[in-house]
Structure formats: structure tokens, C-alpha cells
Model the fold of this input.
Amino acid sequence: MERFAVLRPHLEEDVPLAQAARHAGVAVRTAERWLSRYRRMGLVGLARPVRSNADGRRLPADLVAFIEGMGLKKPRASVAAIHRRISSAANAQKWPVPSYSTVYAIIANLDPAMVTLAHEGASAFRNRYELIHRHRAETANAVWQADHTVLDVLILDHTGKPARPWLTTVVDDYSRAVAGVMVFFGAPSILNTSLALRQAIWRKGDPAWPVCGVPDVLYVDYGCDFTSKHLDQVAASLKFRIVNSAVARPQGRGKIERLWERPELHRLLDQLRKGDVLVVWKLDRLSRSLRDVLTIMERLGEAEAGFQSLTEAIDTTTPAGRMMMQMVGAFAEFERAMLRERTKAGLDSARREGRIGGRRPKLTPQQQSEIGKMVSKGRKTASDAARLFRVHPATVSRLLARAYAK
Done:
């Protein structure tokens, strides 16, 4: 309508077109062109035409792919360094040299998940994106996941001493809703999982918490502490399947800590540029885990950004502040090294005493010998022996394979 406002005095008040154009600060030739379009097409003719490639870039596709590749290259380079290399390559290939803002926009539009995979590896990608955004279930109550974490609160235990409790949750994969919870002291076990599952199955008294029902599949942790014949019997009665997740690979939502993950912090870290300073009131507002703090410091270092904590007077933009963070990192590394050393010494001592880790064998040496005699003499088949001793046929097969190998 701005163009029509220029032409209105001429169309409605018979003001000469040149005078109306000068009054509006528009060239006479431009006003004549607008008038011609208006008489031919009406108001549509005064609309600004849209370029056919308005949503694209004028750069060659190979150059855009080159910029994206440089943005995903490890170790991560600054946009200024990438722009310098791109400018040299464009001159060599006789491509148009993109501006700094164009290079920055292309890199900023990269998929964050792809950037994480390229710069931090598959493990970081899986922990941050894959299990969060990938649904295994197509309907509610199809897949439930039981998971555990230590809460960042202190509660008086039965001895009157403050301690951090554990939280077990049962989460529906489809809706991401928490169906059942259990807060307790001590290590997670099948008992706490069962109590959380009971709450998940039954209707809640709070109408604002409608999640309930029976799942098709329940994923629980791996290990002897998370297997129970009683839970297997409940699963058989209610007709749902229990699956023990592989070690460090939870299914469904997994990783209960992500229920309280701070997406704005990750967004802030992704947008840091050289010279920026991250300021927090207190260090524990950033993270309460030393390992997490050091990981964040590494990301700040990669982005060439600084960090300030107002309460602890830590400022990595100064030599003293950098020394303080290096000391914190050195103590953390020392602690991890000592932990590895103690763990290795404990395992070596256990092996010397004839003890090995893992679950206890289901069959005693006498039972193993009896199975070997039954099958070798033809009194029982391997399947019959497995049913007799209430073990899986694969257990008997492995036992016989070891016996034959000897």
C-alpha cells in the first residue's frame, strides 16, 4: 500500500504525477512504472515481486557443502577461520566469495544433532539426542522404561543423618509421561522397581495424573539385582513382557536425568562465540557435578569464551581464574586416576582369591557334572536336562560345549 499512497494524489485528486512523486521522494520514472502496472493489474501490480530463488542462496551448491563440511570438521574451528579458508578456496575455484555473515548463517543453520555427532562423537549424540527424540512406541502403554537416579536433595535417614535419596521412575515412551515413582534410601533394586511399577499400573487419586494401565513391554536395568521370579509371574499374569536393557543402553526414554535436562543451557553453549563470557551467580547454579562442570569448561574453551562465577570469584578471563580452574581439573583428574587404580587393585585381588565378577552361576559344580553325565550317557537330552534343572537350554549347551572342549 506504500506504492499506492504515492499514486493516490494523482489518481484521486488529479495532482500531476511528477509533483506527487517529488512530494513522496520517489523518482518520476519509478512512479510512471508503478502507474503503468496499476492500470494493467490493479493493486496486485504494485506488490513487490518475489525472486524465484528467494528461499535459497546464490552460492554454488558445492561451496555451500564445503562450508557445511568445514563447520562439522573436528576440531571445531571459529567462523572467522572457516571464512578465511573458504575465501581462499572460492578464489581458487573462481566461485563468488561469501561474506562472513553468510558463512556464519550457514554454520548456524546446521542441525545441532549433526554438529554434536561430528564434534563430540556417537556416545554424546546418543545421550543428548537419540534416546530423547526417538520413540520406540506408536501408542500409549506400549513401552515403559524403569530408570533410577540420585536426587540432589538431602533427607534425614533412619539414623538421623542427612543423605541423598534415590528416585525410581516408570516412564511411558509414547507420551513421555511418568506413570509411577518411588523414593528410597539405598541402592536401586527390583523391589523399588516393583513398587514404582505398582503405582504406574493402578489409577491415581489425583485426577491431574491420569497415566495408568498395563504396558506391552517393560524395560528394566540389567543385572542380578533387577531380576525376580515374582515379577516374572506378575508379567505372565498381566500379559506383558520384561526386557533387561543392555548395559549403558537404556531403551525408550532412558536416562532419567533428562527429565530435568536444561535445554536452555545447551542452547546457550551452542551459541557461544569467541570473546563471550558466561556469568553465573554461583558455581552450583551451573552444575552440581564436577565432571559436568569440567565438560562445560571444555566447551567454553573450544568456543574461546570465558567464564565467571560471582560468588566464588572465579574468572577464566584472567590468569588467576584460569589457574583456579586448572587446579580444579587437576584434582578431578587425580581423583579419577586414584579411583581407577583402586578398582583395578580390587579386581586383581579378587581374581587371585578365585573370585570373579558377574552373576552367580545357576548351577552348582555338582549339578553341572550331573548334567554332563546324563547327556553323555544318553539318559537325557539337553532340552530335558534344562527343564529338569530349570535353566535355559542355551545354558546347558554352553556347559556341554565347555565339557567337550576339555
In short: The two ends are 93 Å apart (CA to CA). The first strand starts at residue 143 and ends at 150. The mean pLDDT is 80.
